[in-house]
Structures are given as structure tokens and as C-alpha cells.
Amino acid sequence: MKKIIAIIRPDKLEDVKNELEEIGCHGITVKEVKGRGAQLGITESYRGRDYKVDLLPKTEIIIVAKDNETDKIVDTIIKTAKTGDIGDGKIFISPVEDVVRIRTGERGEDAI
Fold first, then answer.
1. How far is CA 98 from CA 11, 31, 62, 74, 110, in A?
2. What residue ranges define each of the domains in the chain, with the CATH number in brackets?
């Protein structure tokens, strides 16, 4: 099993969520987060004064998936969230040792 953490633009969430549902990926957790990457934030002007916003709003999607579904999920997120501009986000993939469904006590892939 793999844990997929995708950091995307907030305005792409609905599109990504819909595309994930289309491929059969229903179990997701979503958080509103702030962060920055290579762009180091943005500079804006307000009433003639420039100020720097160095932590930008992003959306974090967390998915735990079977190993054989991971590539399809990652490819779907990339295809849907990509604008080609700086700030599109990142995807982190890491192994998951175990999963337990609290209600039934099921473990492993049966609990996803």
C-alpha cells in the first residue's frame, strides 16, 4: 500500500476530486494548507505599497491506495491539476505499513 499526498492549487480541487471518482478512487482526505515552493511566494501591491505573500494557500489531498492503483491515481492528479505554471504543486508517495478499519477491525488492503 502507498500513501499519496498531493499538494495542489485550491481551484483545482473539484476537478481532481471528480476525476478521482471517475477512476474509482473514493477515499480521500482534504485539508486547506499554506506553503511555498520554488516560487518563494508572490509580491502584491495594495494602496501603492508592495508586500510579499510568502505562504500561499494550497489544498492537500491524502489518499491511501493499493500498490497496483498508485500510478493510475498519481497520473490522474497530474493530468487534472497541471496548469503548466509555477505553483502547480507536488505529489509525495510513501509506503504504508498497515491500515486498520476502526469499525470492523479489518487490516491491510481490506481496510482501504
1. 32, 22, 16, 20, 10
2. 2-111 (3.30.70.120)
Q: With 80 as the cut, is the pLDDT of residue 39 above it? A: no
- Give the pTM: 0.86
Q: What is the pLDDT of residues 55-85, one digit of tens each?
A: 889 999 999 999 999 999 999 999 999 999 8
DSSP assignment of 62-79:
EEEE-GGGHHHHHHHHHH
Q: Which residue, among 76, 91, 94, 75, has the nearest Cα to 37 in the 3D structure?
A: 91
Q: Which stretches does DSSP call E strand in 1-112?
A: 2-8, 29-35, 42-46, 49-53, 56-65, 89-95
